[in-house]
Amino acid sequence: xxxxxxxxxxxxxxxxxxxxxxxxxxxxxxxxxxxxxxxxxxxxxxxxxxxxxxxxxxxxxxxxxxxxxxxxxxxxxxxxxxxxxxxxxxxxxxxxxxxxxxxxxxxxxxxxxxxxxxxxxxxxxxxx
Length: 128
Fold this sequence. Notes:
It is a multi-pass membrane protein. By secondary structure, this protein is mainly α. It is built from four helices and no strands. The protein has one domain (11-42, 53-127).
């Protein structure tokens, strides 16, 4: 029995990828907003999804909001990507993560070298 592989046209792949990116950042900002309400944070930077310089401490409320929103975003997006892409969910999830790292580096003008940020992304990938 031969292995059959279907290859989607590039336009379809790019449309699905763009939809996944929009979905990712929408879920990210919604989870940030909910985190701010839950943890009673009255102000949070608009660039919060890209912030890897926040002091990693359980006493730091902003760090808790960022960490929880990151984990919730990846978990929820893992569920939302399934009906959007139907297959190859891991490919899209990893591609969105690579784009997120690139955007983060561009926004913060520095490549994220902090271990807690990478650990959060690594744990998030396991949730997908």
